[in-house]
Amino acid sequence: MTSWLSMLRFDCKRQLFPPKILQSTQIPLPLNVIINYRMKSNNRFFLGLLLLLSHFSAFAQQYLVKGGSHEPMLAINEISYKLKVYVLDGTENTSISYTSSSTNHQWKRYKTKYLEAENVNSQQQGTTSVITDLEDGYGYFVDEGTFSTTYIWIIDYNKHPFIINDLLVSENSDPCTGIFLKGDQPIDNLSYHTPDGSIKTIKRKFEISYNTLEWNDSSHSFQNILKTKKIEGNPYSQLIDSIYTDTDITLSGDQFASYFGKAQSATINNYITSQLLLRTDTTALVDESDNMSAKSDGLSAPATIRFTAYANEPTATLYVWKIYREEDGPDNPIVRFTEPETEYTFNEYGKFVAEVEVSGNNNCYVTSDPISLDISESFLDVPNAFSPGTTPGVNDEFKVVYKSLVRFSCWIFNRWGQELYHWTNPALGWDGKKGGKYVAPGVYFSVIEAEGSDGKKYKKKGDINILRPKNEDTSSSGKENSSL
How many Cβ atoms sit within 10 Å of the Cβ of residue 464? Predict the structure, then answer.
């Protein structure tokens, strides 16, 4: 019997191609060839195509799967194969009904591929037929002799359930990096065959929940949170990490059991974690003075740095800070500290690295990322003039420009060799006063002895010109100290 679909295909092909093309081939022309040819000729093809597609859409919806203890679940819709996979809660009173465009059709089923399909008896009433007693692991379809056949694969969940009565930590776990779970029952693969014989697997979905810690930047502390991890596939083959506090661990699922109202769950009570969580912080305890040289980006010695480690105590029990020269490596530290927080003053030029190792039970340990510190080479430059008392805040103090000086002394003398001022902090300077009064304008002398972080020694002597009109009264007593 020739269906209206066959006639439509023939009519579309006849209208699209000249008789010579139809007579030259005995092979049905591919649909894409028909489309490409017709787009170059006339628009009658599109009417046929729309009718054809509307028929396919209606065809794909003509199967109805029913039965089992709950509503069947459509798990997979393989559009490219025209295959739908249904998971049933048992096969009792199950059926698939099909409404055809004609009464002439045959039900079939396949185990591995449709070319090896066997006939299936059905009950037919008009254009609708029904098959019952569905079996797990078969693909069912109606053969109407068309290329648009749709397939229904059946999985009986009751034959492949997820069951768990006891949840354990697998002996294959490494407690330092994470754990694998282990149940008391195996988990089957939910597999199906595509019409061409390919084997595919539906991934089960699970949830694992446990308490853990996460870092809070604003409070500089760890906070306890409940974490829920979604897993696809076998939950016993996936690493569960980031457990940073003692906690209960609960596994629940799968999505089919939840859909059918019989979700499974099991809990490991009070799991004692060995995983370590570490954060570090550094604070430079340095006053950046206005006369420090900006010629390099490194820190100016002496540079005192506070190092702080935060870890998930009481799992973390021991802290070891190491500071070493970059070229020497961590096996040759300059100094070690065994406290979470420590301070160290860098007095030498060079590139340094600090890192902390935290350890706990089960011989677990974690090492921080290296903290790089660059201590600059020394620098010293001495000015030769300033104008105290005339332009407040602008060149009104004698200060050296420096960097990384670990020792410093400066003396100021008048022209008769009398010491007027002495200081040892290079960040400070001389305000041009002696005994609380500004000295007279003129030439004075400085002597500087210093040593840099790089070991360089400085001995500098030079003139200092104090620039100020002689008649300008800027002393604290109203009289200029001109005798100096």
Answer: 19
- In the chain, the amino acid numbered 28 is P
Would you say 86 and 166 are in contact if contact means Cβ atoms under 8 Å apart?
Answer: no
Under 8 Å between Cβ of 326 and 351: yes
| Residues 246, 273: Cα–Cα separation, whole Å | 5
Tens-place pLDDT, residues 247-305: 999 999 999 999 999 999 999 999 999 999 999 999 988 767 777 777 767 888 899 99
- 380-466 has which CATH code? 2.60.40.1220
Q: Where in the chain is the domain with CATH 2.60.40.10?
A: 278-375
Place of tokens 């579309």: 12
pTM of structure = 0.71
Residue 32, SS3 per DSSP? helix
Instruction: Measure the CA–CA gap between 31 and 296, rounded to whole angstroms.
Output: 73
Long-range contacts of 412-416, Cβ-Cβ distance < 8 Å, separation of 24 or more: 412/444, 412/445, 412/446, 412/464, 413/444, 413/445, 413/446, 413/447, 414/439, 414/444, 414/445, 414/484, 415/442, 415/443, 415/444, 415/445
Three-state secondary structure readout of 293-330: CCCCCCECCCEEEEEEEEECCCCEEEEEEEEEECCCCC
Q: Does domain 278-375 have CATH number 2.60.40.10?
A: yes
Q: How far apart are CA 153 and CA 148, in angstroms?
A: 16
CA dist 95 and 150 (Å) reads: 16
Fold of 63-159: Immunoglobulin-like (2.60.40)
The Cα–Cα gap between 402 and 407 comes to 11
CATH 2.60.40.1220, the chain: domain bounds = 380-466
Geometric angle at alpha carbon 174, from 169 and 175, rounded to 5°:
70
Residue corresponding to tokens 């939950």: 235
Residue 137 CB coordination number (10 Å): 16
Give the pLDDT confidence of 16-61 residue by residue, as tens digits.
344 433 343 343 444 443 434 444 444 444 444 444 444 444 444 4
